[in-house]
Structure formats: structure tokens, C-alpha cells
């Protein structure tokens, strides 16, 4: 059974402003890239599809969606204890990753304006959506007397450099996994309204269509670059990114088991469903996907979580750095071993099924 971990009390930066959680490999990242290389991307091989998606983004179907209606205007002090702490943690993590998307898309649209106007417009429209998402989540945090200082985050977070190819793979996957996370939560709460303790979840149906469109844009961009899917190197990278996204997802879902339980979601079932759906969706963009039906697939992902917990416990202990390092070696080796074993499972060729899945 999934272990339920207590969420720590939020730390404050100043009154009402929450200090961002400590950055780790698993907290949502802020990205930067090689803008000059991005500018030079030749999208002519798939321009029609890209233009059709830009047209969809222009239509701005959700322009009236992100409104805090009357349902929000009440006191939320009734939500207390672990439910409150883990919900705030969920809001913060979601807000940070939405905001990270906003910053990257905004910078891309600014830098590409002159030389690649189609991509620049798409990034500008997606930045618009992410700003709405992050803003809405931050207002929800304010209902719990906290908010994130987004300009502080902009200046103080570490930016990870990813070359354009990695940006396209990872942002594609994060948009699609984001879509599945939101829609599955929404469908579950529609069926089980007794768990809907806060109206934010009701917004997820249209919200996740934004993420779906962003994912479709990245899919079209990826398919416009044959080097990103038509050779052996691309096949190795795709396996790696699918695996790392699924390991990260498993660890973060299991770490926050108490949040999922508070809305009546079984963390293990939810994790598996999100991963299976995202993997199947990825067959539309990637040359291959992972074999989630392999008998050891989810067991090994969960072993990564178990070992990550051991690392967290060692880090928390008051031993010297030297001792901590040696205590951590077996857990780190175990995570690498389990990831390697999943990586080596024969993947499923998505190109063979392309005609039927498109
Ligand atoms: Fe978003
Ligand atoms: Fe998005």
C-alpha cells in the first residue's frame, strides 16, 4: 500500500507570501534554450498543420473561462490539517510549473519574432494561456492566505539549459501528461462530487484543453523536424525522456499520496492511468513508446520512489556530509538500476501504427 507522508507546514518569505519549496531534481524546472538555433528551425515540412494549430490558439476558446465565480467567494478556513497542507503543496507545484511554461514561451516569442513569426505567434498565444493558468492557481493559494511571489521566482530560480530538441521532447510530454492529470482528476470528481472540496477542480475540463492544444503544437513542431524522430539517436532520446517523465511522475504522486487520498483518488491507480494514457498519446508524436504492460514496468517505477524516500530520509538526518554520501550510494545505484532495466525493455514501434492512431 502507498505510504501517506505528512506535508510540512508552508514556510513564509514574508507575511502572506510563501517561500518557494527547495529546488530538487523533482521540483518543476525553469528552462532556457539556444534561442538562435530555435530561430533557425525550418518548419516548412509541417507548416499546414502548425498553421492550423496557431489558428486554434488564436480562437482563444477559454478567454471567458478563468473567472473566479461566486463559488470561490467564501471562507476556506474549514479546510484544515493535512488536507489543507497537501492542497497548498499541490497548488504551489502546479502554479510553479504553469509559470515556468509562461516564462519559456514568452521568451521564445520575444526572441523569434523577427526571424520565425509563425513560431513566435504560437509561443505568444501559449504564454497567454499559461499566464492565466498560473494566475488562477495563485489566486486559489490566496484563498488559503498565501501566494507565490512570481517575480521573485523569475529572478531567483535556477534556469536549466536544454537544447531545442530536449525542449521539444520534454515540453511535449509535460503538456500531454498535464492534460491527462487534469482530465482524469476532473472526471473522477464529476463522478464523486462529495470529494470536490474546492471549486478549482471544476475548471479543469476546459483548462486541460489548453494543455492538449499546446501538446498538439509541440507534436506538429516535432514532426516538422525529421531528425527528432527518424533516426536511431532520436529513438534512444525518446525512450530516455519518456522514462524520466514517468519516474518523476511516480515519485511526485506517491510523495503526495495524502493529497490524492483527500480527493478520493487511489494514488497507484491514478499514477498508472496517467502514465498509460500519456504513453499511448505519445505514439502520435514519437517513433516509439514504452511497454507499460511489461510485468515489471510499474513495479520498477515504484522502486524508484521507495529508494528516493530513502535518500530523503538520509538527507534529513543530522549525519556528516561524508557519511550521508556513502549511505546514499546504494539507493542512488538502485534507482539507476531500475531505470536502466525499464530503459532496456523492448519498446513499441509507434511508426508501424501511425496510420491507425493519427
Ligand atoms: Fe497550463
Ligand atoms: Fe500548457
Automatic annotation (TrEMBL):
Its EC number is 1.14.13.81. GO terms for molecular function: magnesium-protoporphyrin IX monomethyl ester (oxidative) cyclase activity. It comes from the Bacteria. Residues 89-222 form the Rubrerythrin diiron-binding domain. Pfam families: Rubrerythrin (PF02915). It catalyses: Mg-protoporphyrin IX 13-monomethyl ester + 3 NADPH + 3 O2 + 2 H(+) = 3,8-divinyl protochlorophyllide a + 3 NADP(+) + 5 H2O. Its cofactor is Fe cation. The keyword NADP applies. InterPro entries: AcsF, Ferritin-like_SF, Rr_diiron-bd_dom. Keywords: Chlorophyll biosynthesis, Iron, Metal-binding, NADP, Oxidoreductase, Photosynthesis. Pathway: Porphyrin-containing compound metabolism; chlorophyll biosynthesis (light-independent). It is an enzyme of class 1 (oxidoreductase). Belongs to the AcsF family. Catalyzes the formation of the isocyclic ring in chlorophyll biosynthesis. Mediates the cyclase reaction, which results in the formation of divinylprotochlorophyllide (Pchlide) characteristic of all chlorophylls from magnesium-protoporphyrin IX 13-monomethyl ester (MgPMME). NCBIfam families: AcsF, PRK13654.1. This is Magnesium-protoporphyrin IX monomethyl ester [oxidative] cyclase. It comes from Calothrix parietina FACHB-288.
